[in-house]
Amino acid sequence: MATELVSTERHGAVLAVTLNSPDTRNSLTLELREQLGAAIALAERDRSVRSVFLSGAGSSFCSGGDFKMLQQASTPWPVHRRFRQYSRWLTPLTMLEKPVVVGVHGYAVGGGMGLALTGDMLIAGESTQFVAGFFRLGAVPDIGVMYQLPRLIGMARAKNFLFGGDTLNAQEALELGLVRKVVPDGQLRAAGLEEAQRLASGPAEVMGLAKMLMARSFEHSLEQMFTYEGLGQALAMSSAEFGEGFHAALEKRSPDFAAAAARAAEAGQ
After folding, report:
1. What is the structure's pLDDT at 64?
2. pTM
3. Looking at the domain assignment, is residue 76 inside a domain?
4. Which of 87, 107, 182, 269 could make an SS bond with 170 (beta carbons 3.0 to 4.6 A apart)?
5. Regions in the chain scoring below 50 on pLDDT
6. Cα dist. 38→42, 153, 251 in Å?
7. Per DSSP, which regions of 43-115 are E strands?
8. Domain-ending residue, one of 180, 200, 220
9. How far apart are CA 169 and CA 120, in angstroms?
10. Does residue 208 sit in the same domain as residue 196?
């Protein structure tokens, strides 16, 4: 039986996905990446999953690249094949049309930092250390770091961090706006699940649509974004979630977005 390097657990409408290779500090081995891809595919196809909480077991969130693999597969074709496999796990995670909360503790190094940055909202334990690491090996930043980091903290700060070989602790990441909140490590899982459950109880499908549109905002003109907004709003306002939210506002009651979405799913909408 294959070792379970990524575990999943349901908490109501939240799918908790845990990197479960503490002996390697959850390094990004081929097996772990494949199992993470399978977990994300599960979240994508199951409409009853309305948000995802991603975290790591053991002392750290993720130590980045698998050194054993790098020793054996750093010639051009193995590297090319490895990066082509992004479409099996990293792209689906980044583009998942559901809110993703990431709980980070200990070290998030190199590609492990890139993995953390795929989240829509990050919760950091007090022990968190974001480490660039790439240039120490003579490698360019990967796992989406060069895409995500300049968008999140600005190009100048991203360059200063990466070229400086710096480390960001939890409080520094909070001050930069990289993480939403900092909590004691022992409270990280509870805090992350609480945030994911809050998002799951909201208009999660509409949030997923907004997430897809915002991902295009740095590459398109204002006029193009207005077009995307209009198309997105046409979809949003035809959704069961909008119908529930709008009528709840008129009736001065709390909306039940999850129930409305469940009814729509049962009706095949």
Report:
1. 85
2. 0.93
3. yes
4. 182
5. 1
6. 6, 30, 42
7. 51-56, 100-104, 107-109
8. 200
9. 19
10. no
